[in-house]
Amino acid sequence: MDREALEILAKEIVDAAFAVHSALGAGLLESSYEMALCHEFKLRGIEFERQKEMPVTYKGVALDCGYRMDILVADEIVLELKAVEATLPIHEAQILSYLKHAGKPLGFLINFNVALIKDGIRRRALRLPLS
Fold it and tell me: What are phi and psi of 92, to 5 degrees?
């Protein structure tokens, strides 16, 4: 996916997160926001995979450690969803690790437990070549 298409998709993801947060507000479980966001993606015709398995590779061996990305959008953008009082450095490390191990260029850490969703969205990118 080229950079322009990736940016258009990233904007759609943010718009979808805004729609979900506007409808549901803060205070629900993470799984509720995940299901609602996936429904919003379906309504918008956005390709996604929910709870996508992600093996960790160590010295050429894929380790099945049970890691799962919350949502992988269009096989390009990783979404890590939270419903916590505040995101922590470990949450930032988690999204960066998922990007690295999945070989994806862009991700969002989205915390829905905020008064304004703009305060809960963190964009993270790795320096990977885009096709």
Answer: -60, -45
Indicate if the alpha-carbon torsion angle 80, 82, 86, 91 is positive or negative: negative
Helices (H), the chain: 3-24, 30-44, 89-102
pLDDT tens digits, residue range 17-37? Answer: 999 999 999 999 999 999 999
Please, what is the end-to-end C-alpha distance for the chain in angstroms?
Answer: 6
Q: DSSP assignment, residue 86?
A: S
pTM of the model: 0.92
In whole angstroms, what is the distance from residue 8 CA to residue 55 CA?
Answer: 28
Longest dimension (CA), the chain: 45
Question: For the chain, what are the domain ranges?
Answer: 3-125
